[in-house]
Amino acid sequence: MFYYWGTRNGEGVDDVTEEKTTHDHSVIKISCPKSTIQDKPIGRCLGFIGENGHVSVLQYGDGQGNDAVMQNFNLKKDHIKLMKSGTAGAVLRKSDGEILFMETWNSCRLFKVLCDRQVTQVACGNQHCIAIIRDGQLLVWGANSHGQLGLEKSSLLEKEECRIQSPQPLKSLYGIPVVQISAGGDHSFALSLSGAVFGWGKNNAGQLGLGNTTSRHTPTCVKSLNMKKTIFISCGEEHTAILTKGGYVFTFGSGSCGQLGHGSLRNEHHPRLVAELMGAKVSQIACGGHHTLALSESFNMIYSFGCGKQGQLGNGTMVNQAVPLPVHLPPDHSPALKVKRVLAAGNTSIAQVCQNHETSVISHVCTTIDDQMIDRWLKEYDTNACRQTKREIRRIFSSPSCVNGSFIDESRDKHFLTSVEYSGLDLSLARLAFEKIATKTKVLLEVQHTVERELLQALSVCRAEVEALRVYLILPELIRVLQEGHQKTQLAVYLADAIEKLGPCDALEKLWTRMPFSYFRTLVKIFHSESTRLVTQMTTQPCDHWESLTTMLSVLKRLFLVNRRRKCALMESQFCITEVADLLGNSNIEKLVPYSFVADTETKKNIFIVEFIGENGVDFRGLSAEFLSLLSEAFITWQKKPLQVFEDSQLVWFNPNIADITDFYYLGLVCGMALYNCHFTNINFPLALFKKLLCLSPNLHDLEELTPVEARSLKNLLAEDEDVVDELYLDFMVKDQELISNGAQTPVTKFNRQKYVDLYVDFIFNKSVKNQFEQFSAGFSEGCPINAWKIFHPEELREVVYGSPLYKWEDLQKGATYEHCSPSDELIQNFWTVFFEFSEEQRKTFLFFMYGTDRVPAGGLSKVTLKIMQLNSPDSDDRFPEAQTCFGTLYLPKYSDIDTLRNKLIHAISFCEVFGRA
Questions:
Q1: Among candidate residues 363, 366, 364, the one with its CA nearest the CA of residue 176
Q2: Are residues 420 and 344 part of one domain?
Q3: Active site located where (predicted)?
Q4: Which of 334, 363, 599, 828 fits as disulfide partner to 603, beta carbons 3.0 to 4.6 Å?
């Protein structure tokens, strides 16, 4: 049975009978016991589908003297399962899947272009239609005067006013698991599985909820509704209502008749909660042309608000109403009858009532993978149902929407929290699903081939919304269960290629950052192991996999950088590919420079050594090492002070107050030359410099290294209570320089303090020394003219330029060799006794005496060559030790006792400019 109010006709027709209980714009009964009603948000007709699949159509009056007409619609033997109508016509789906289009109210034609598309949902506006087909794709057709079709500009849409006769795919929502669509007058909406709301089309009254009145020609996410747990959308002529799982109603758009329910006639450009319905726990909503209905099944009550001039509010009057009030059901309404459904269209409202006490559920259409489906595949694949099973596998695994809608974390509604911080997936479900699929090889191969040939090819058109990106987190679990071999490598390459086609995608990288550790480890392992396989093939077989390898390494590089931002991170050594050393010939170095993470520091050092044309392979490097070390140190003591020393860290940074910036070019030139010749400099720069050389941004941690005191103040600022921050009376100024426009008059508050800290760090490392660093960088590149130095990480580059900070003196002793003497000789025993008596500074002075620099190479003192050669002469006690710096040889006279050795050695290292040999 149905209740009907608003614009209506006189008597009923055939099995649809009208029982008038009142005559003045009140609710009346329609007895139609064997029919179901088809939801139609707006338009001029409503379809009743009988038990036998036949259709009765109620065509509404127009409110201008033309009454509504109810008539049977003869479709002969066609059994109709679904009907949606708009001003321009209606779409009907038969039980066999065929689609009919009703252009007039007494004739239908076969809509052939949709007959093989398996339509599951249809929504019609005034002059446009939207349909969801079974693979999750949206199709649109009709008028596009306000962008209501959501199609991007193309040859089909040279004019905004044109009509699209044949359904076109809505590519901008491809990959989003859409579960519901709704069409308003000239605007449209789509709802995703995790509650994301997308609107497009006319927006003159703010009916898209985007905060303005600018129409949209492509679907745009209503971000203010994110995480509201939206489960249903209904569109009116120029307003929209959404329902959340908690039973809350939000409305926006035109409020000219009170249809928003906020107690005013004002338009709303943002979704606004209908406060008067907060306690009702609404279970259904429906928007008419200019009015809204809300059903509370728990109270068995219908609320209405908006235009009531045709009696569509069901309160016995013909006035507008701006707040939700109960509909006056007929006096003979039995409490045993429960309202199960409400619908609104144009100036008409309808409610379906029955004796059933079951709670109605708003169903959503989204084909997803589950355990029962997989069990059926495994059971039926080798039976007569094999062909049908294959079709189902191909349909699901060729559709990004179906895959993205699977393996959702529905525990405690977590999937409604989907954002760039959380994928909404339960990846354990995906892992278990693919492990189960892998138990039957034929099914696994069918899935693999479908993914490879169809799904991955389709991903290039998917948008970078979180729900469309889930597939990139799910597919590694499929690759994981594949057997080792060419097919596994090929699928990994295809996935890497799809990721690269996305381009820079901050949303995906944020999802990787928050990905559970074990699944992130799987993701890295797949690209690492398959890259290793390609490298091995290239070094053992005559094949060229450079294109595939660089694609894989590009993704691995992104994962490497993401790993550095993760709280629970992998060891960076897990990204190294030891086999890559075999590829690092002169012709391949440049190719691998962007992927420096795959080689360890030792491998990088080995490939970085420069050989000069015409040299015999022996480089007597002692004098050049000492020269560059002393020259670089002079920049610190130079009276022009191009560098400033920070007392709390003893690190140096560019002096921002130096006018003659050419000095910084020469400073960079010296540092570049030192790197080019594998020597060290005596300038203690912070890590921030090497980050900047490698085009990375310094952060607060880098400031903490350079000046702990300043960094501590900034960290305290971020941690202080709001009152304390206000009492600091800070503004956006640093060292008498404005960080932002009008910074002196802009106070630092609790809400902008993070911005202040970020700008402070940027000022110290970037803004204040912009010209100085640019000159230094230019000089550095001139001094080291090959790009291979870019293969280093910032920490490695600092170690190569400045030397290792680790002085493990025992390693120097362990690696020493001897000539004309042995470690057990008294002279050698005395030497090491004296050496380990030295202070730290004296030991470093000994290094300078021996090698022309006190810096330790990457890898520590175990990489230093020290040969001690005993000198036997009658005047040994009168001689000083000598060092041959080029070869790391110490000439040690055979002293008569330890005291003589101590005195002579201390004198020699203290005046090493005199006692060194080249």
A1: 366
A2: no
A3: 886
A4: 599
The model's pTM is 0.69
> What CATH code is carried by the domain that includes residue 839?
3.30.2410.10
Domain boundary among 291, 324, 354: 354
Other Cβ atoms within 10 Å of 66 Cβ, number:
11
In which residue are the tokens 């110290």 written? 764
Closest CA to 270 of 231, 232, 228, 217: 228
Output the six-digit token pair for 673. 């030359």
- Number of domain units in the chain: 4
- Please give the average pLDDT of every successive group of 10 residues along the chain, which has 918 residues: 71 35 54 50 49 55 49 58 64 72 66 75 89 88 92 60 83 92 95 95 97 95 94 96 96 97 96 95 95 94 94 90 93 83 88 67 65 93 88 93 94 91 94 96 95 89 83 96 90 95 91 95 96 89 86 94 92 88 66 78 62 39 54 64 84 86 84 76 85 92 92 89 79 90 89 92 93 91 80 83 79 91 93 93 87 73 87 89 83 93 91 50
Closest by alpha carbon to 784, among 694, 696, 668? 668
- Domain holding 712, by residue range, is 622-802
Bridge partner list, 253: 239, 268
Helix (H, G, I), strand (E, B) or coil at 300: coil
Contacts of 223 (CB under 8 A, 6+ apart): none
Vertex 506, ends 530 and 395: CA angle to 5°? 60
CA angle 177, 178, 182 (to 5 degrees): 175
Question: Is 793 found in the same domain as 818?
Answer: no
By annotation, the residues acting in catalysis are: 886
**Are β-strands 216-221 and 230-235 bridged in parallel, bridged antiparallel, or unpaired?**
unpaired
Same domain (yes/no): 129, 265: yes
Q: What beta strand segments (E) does 8-150 contain? A: 17-19, 28-31, 35-37, 45-50, 55-59, 69-73, 80-86, 89-94, 99-104, 107-110, 119-124, 128-133, 138-143
